[in-house]
Structure formats: structure tokens, C-alpha cells
Amino acid sequence: RDSTGDESFKKIIADVTKTFEDKLSSIEEKYTLLLSSQAAALEEKYSQMLNSQMAAMEAKYKTLMVSQEATMNARVDALMDVIERKDKSLSFMDQEIGEIKGSLKHMGLENRSTKNCMYEMRQKQVDLEDRSKRQNLLFFGIDETEDESGTQCE
């Protein structure tokens, strides 16, 4: 082999290597662009799926919250009805208690009046008994007597 042949062979190899490297670089750039575009497309697709799922979850959450709010409002309304009925019942009971207190006060006054009347009747009975005894003694002609306590009666 001669040296020009070697050099032309080296030049051909260098040219082929340069062409191969250029094509490899071009392929790498295209592959990088393809991967970037696929990555962007996947990212967009997953972003859309995620947004869609989030919107569906928010809708379910809102529906659940509205349902729970309606249930709680119904429970609160039922409890308010019970409280209102109990309040009316307590008001009626307070009124009844007031009437009973008034009746008891009236009964106490009547009882006191009855006791006073009975005391007066006992006093009158004792007085009548004493008069009756005196009348009987006078009827039998006795003017003065000593009662059991030792005092003189006329």
C-alpha cells in the first residue's frame, strides 16, 4: 500500500465517521424532540385526566355536602319542633303550677279561717258550758261555787 492510499482511506473513514456522527446527532435531536413532544402530550393528557377527576370529585363532594346539609337541616328542624313542643308543654305546666299555687294559697286562707272559726266555736262552747253550769247552779239555788282550779265562780 502506498501512503496516498492510506491517506485517502483515512479521509474516507473520516468523512464516513463525520457523516455517521452528523446523522447520529440528527437522530438524537429528532429523538429528543420526539420524546419532548410525547412527554408534553402525556403531561397534557394526564393533566386533563387529573382535572377531569378533580372536577368529578368536587361535584361528588358538593353533592354529598348538600345532602348532608339537607339531612342536618331536617334534624335541626325536628329538634326545634321537639323543643317548641316541650316549651309549650312547660309553659302550660308553669300555668298549671301557678293555678295550683293560687289554689293552695286560697286553701291555706280557708284553712286558717276554718281554724279561727273552730277556735271561736270552742270558746263559745266553753262559754256556753260555763253559763249552763251557772244557770243550773242558780236553778238549784247555789249562788257561788269553786271550780276545780280553786277560783270562785258567781
Description of the molecule:
The chain has a two-stranded antiparallel sheet. The chain contains one helix and two strands. The protein is 89% helix and 3% strand. The relative contact order is 0.03. With 154 residues, the protein is mainly α. It has one helix at 3-139; strands spanning 145-146, 152-153. The chain is rod-shaped, with a radius of gyration of 62 Å. The mean pLDDT is 86.
What's the pLDDT, averaged over the residues? 86
Structural class based on helices, strands and sheet pairing: mainly alpha
* Main beta-sheet annotation: 2 strands, antiparallel
Number of helices: 1
- State the helicity in percent bands: over 70%
Biggest sheet strand line-up: 1-2
Total E-strand runs: 2
| Helix and strand sequence | HEE
Give the distance, in angstroms, between the N- and C-terminal Cα atoms. Answer: 188 Å
Radius of gyration equals 62 Å
What global shape is seen? rod-shaped
Strand content: under 5%
Low-confidence regions? none
Topology at a glance:
Elements: H1 3-139, E1 145-146, E2 152-153
Antiparallel strand pairs: 1-2
Key descriptive features of the protein:
154 residues, mainly alpha, two-stranded antiparallel ribbon, 2 strands, 89% helix, rod-shaped
Give a quick summary of the entry.
By secondary structure, this protein is mostly helical. It is built from one helix and two strands, in the order H-E-E.
